[in-house]
Amino acid sequence: MDWEVILSDAVRSGIGPVAAAYALAAIGLNIHFGYTGLLNFGQVAFMLVGAYGVAVSVSTFGLSLWVGVLIGLACSVVLALLLGLPTLRLRAEYLAISTIAAGEILRLFYRSSWAEPVTGGVFGLQQFADEFYDINPVPRDRYGFWLIKYSSQDLWALLIAWGLVLLITVLVALLVHSPWGRVLRSIREDEDAARSLGKSVYSYKMQSLVLGGAIGSVGGMILAIDTQSVNPDSYDPVVTFFLYTLLVLGGAGRVLGPIVGAILFWMILTFFDSALRQAIGAGVIPQDVISAPEVGAVRLALVGLGLMLLMIFRPQGILGSRREMMLDVR
Amino acid sequence: MRVSRMLVPVFALLLMALAPASAMAQSNEVPRGPTFLDRALQVLVDGIQFGSIIAITAVGLSLVFGTTHLINFAHGELVTIGAVVAFFLNVAASGPGWHLIPAALVAIAAGALLGGLIERGIWRPLRKRGTGMINLFIITIGFSLLLRHVVLVFYGTRPQSYREYDIQQAIDLGPVGITPRDLTIVVLSVLVLLGVAFMLQKTRIGTAIRAVSANRDLAEASGIDVNRVVLVVWVLGGGLAALGGVFFGLTEIITWDMGFRLLLLMFAGIILGGLGSAYGAMVGSFVIGIVAQVSTLWFPIDLQNAWALLALIVVLLIRPQGILGQRERVG
């Protein structure tokens, strides 16, 4: 077993563009779940409309990538309004189940043969982000350290992804420490109290849903632009469960929670993946106990176990305070 | 309220009116087959059959929610495990190769046992610790991921079917046809559902379950052993889920994520019917099953679940408390 490879795999994944995209989506989810107490289980739907907003605009309608970004954002706002309208007045469970249902509806529609002329159906869309890489100012070279190497394209995508994470984190930090953010937290703690102080709970919840959803769609765009491809089946409900896991790991209701969570989540996940594969390859774990194709399943089972243990023993995660995470359905 | 009740049939009529138009559009390319009415009747029968499977699995989920307010995301895995246990006893090379009927009975027992073990091993201690509802909800998601992928490791990704009753000739009933297997499944499901309803209405434990669902504190104060009631609900729910899993595996195919794919439809069914009401879950599930199948009259089959879930959101807009749910002030 080559520990250097395992560790470098873990670090590469932890600072990689996927981790950044998940961090962005989790920042959005943090506004919903961590600050407002909304149980949004359809964050992946926002990522999906963001990613497809870009991909469809460029590949199908031949628009500019930047127009696509605006369209993706607009789609996420529309989705948030559509979702919020029927469910935000209902009990938390309704929002949870209708958001997860909405995510599945969208995935099924985007992958259906019906939508194939526009979305590419099960094949998805590819090669739509050339405009993004054309303005790459990073000179052609190999960059990196240790065993981790990037081409100038990868580095450019990485810089933009983490740059957006930082920018949005600062914005969110300013927002949640403003009077607006205090209202959100008061809704999480006691909706009736907030209402009795004359705050329109419904309207604040809607604003939270729209803002977090738009940030989630940016995460989806990063994911799409980084790989230059979108495929509906990479936006299944498990992505939202990952987001919850990493958010709880980092600490829900904390500004840095999603970032710490995303980096650690992907490092741990890749560490297990790489270590298991190496152990099987080196014969430390015999083939008939776990074979190489089953590593992915074992890894996801471990995510599930990790989420359970975290929620049971440390629901506040690494950065959170326990007092703030005593959430309860009214 | 009356106005919104009228909206549902109006919506249904609207869909019916749209039907001939799109059927006409299709008839240009499709060779003349059975008439629209024949196809409509056939998908209705298919829908009832699909709905009965959803209903069998959803009743347990609804009772668990009613008695403990736990949204159990891991319920779909009980369905999968039921189907997979029967598969191992029935088909697997390493299994005993039993006939499906005893295999299914053992699977139901295993599902019931698993349900009871989960309640005793995980949820009761957590309730005692005072873990919040939302935290419990997220724990069930983790548990679902864990169970599902453990099943995947043991079962593999290959979809498989049971040895018996795999391919059958449909019985011709005028315009519609149904295989003896599917007919048996519908009849058995309806009998089981009637049995559950009888139990809820007439037996002591059934009354206790309804009492705990209606008001947990009051039930406890009047001397009902709430923990025992919840345990019974879990055992019952686990057994029903396993039975539903065997049925689902019979009519379609056994896969490692079959329960998870069914889970959202179960949720749609119980919300449609009214959260926490067992009868609502039954009615809602049939509606979901029928909507899913009837949608294939106009839309591609790969969208049938999407339409069923969309029906959920439409009902939430019109009648948030569900078809049989009680109005309560929320938000």
From TrEMBL, chain A:
<dbReference type="InterPro" id="IPR043428">
    <property type="entry name" value="LivM-like"/>
</dbReference>
<keyword id="KW-1133">Transmembrane helix</keyword>
<keyword id="KW-0812">Transmembrane</keyword>
<keyword id="KW-1003">Cell membrane</keyword>
<dbReference type="GO" id="GO:0015658">
    <property type="term" value="F:branched-chain amino acid transmembrane transporter activity"/>
</dbReference>
<protein>
    <submittedName>
        <fullName>Branched-chain amino acid ABC transporter permease</fullName>
    </submittedName>
</protein>
<dbReference type="GO" id="GO:0005886">
    <property type="term" value="C:plasma membrane"/>
</dbReference>
<keyword id="KW-0472">Membrane</keyword>
<dbReference type="InterPro" id="IPR001851">
    <property type="entry name" value="ABC_transp_permease"/>
</dbReference>
<dbReference type="Pfam" id="PF02653">
    <property type="entry name" value="BPD_transp_2"/>
</dbReference>
